Amino acid sequence: MFKTRRKLLSQNFLRGRDLVKRLIAASGISWKNTVLEIGAGSGILTEGLLSVSKKVIAVEIDKGLFAHLSSRLGNNIALELVCSDILALDLPREPYKVFSNIPFSITGEIVKKLLFSDNPPDSCSLIVQKEAAEKFMVNQRKNSMLSILFYPWFEIKISHVFKRTDFTPTPEVDLCFLQIIKRLTPLISNNDMSKYRDFVVFKFTKCRAVGEWPLTQWLIAYTKDVRCRGSFLKWQKEQSKLEKIHRTRTDRNWRKFGSQ
């Protein structure tokens, strides 16, 4: 049952505890931090996080894995176990960091939920597919809309590329350790966040070639176009419908979600 469920949820679990320790050390998580873990799985990351942090909120949607985690680690007073879909769960209101081996099939949805929230994490350390990670990062050639939306508020980098044999079951794609750090001083004032987001979505909707703009152009041009008001909210609503269809496409009645 677990094997089938892991496949559906795109889960590949880390094998080595020494590697987990090195990754947690690289994340900068300490005893002062509350940590959100998404997709706790077998608990190998959970155990490592409990050894260094003040509190761990471990979320696992699979009821069998959740029961296994509860029996192993449920008595630890620093651990809050939650059996839920992370996309339907309220994020912490207190300052927090994220350290997770997230389900690969919903990587984009999870990252958007975290970084577009009213209380984004101070940092995210995520095990993700390398190809997906690169879409969140800015470069000097061509950038995705998401990378430009995140850029003023977050520094995003790949700090480690895994061997495929680091996981079970062995993945068919390359995985990496993606680190997202909230900027102490944003490149754009939070007061202008809505204007900037509207501008970026409006421009990408009209012409994908804007991905080739230099980063500095995005930071100075967003206040000059008043036609794009409401574009970001409209895009979020459209994305929500598409993501709902994606998550329910195995239901023979999945098409009904497109009209809601």
TrEMBL record:
Q: Which Gene3D superfamilies match?
A: Ribosomal RNA adenine dimethylase-like, domain 2 (1.10.8.100), Vaccinia Virus protein VP39 (3.40.50.150)
Record's keyword annotation contains Methyltransferase: yes
| UniProt-listed SMART domains | rADc
* Key words of the record: Methyltransferase, RNA-binding, S-adenosyl-L-methionine, Transferase
Q: What is this protein called?
A: rRNA (Adenine-N(6)-)-methyltransferase
Which PROSITE patterns did the record assign?
RRNA_A_DIMETH, SAM_RNA_A_N6_MT
Checking InterPro entries in the record gives: KsgA/Erm, rRNA_Ade_diMease-like_C, rRNA_Ade_Mease_Trfase_CS, rRNA_Ade_methylase_Trfase_N, SAM-dependent_MTases_sf
Source species? Candidatus Collierbacteria bacterium GW2011_GWB2_45_17
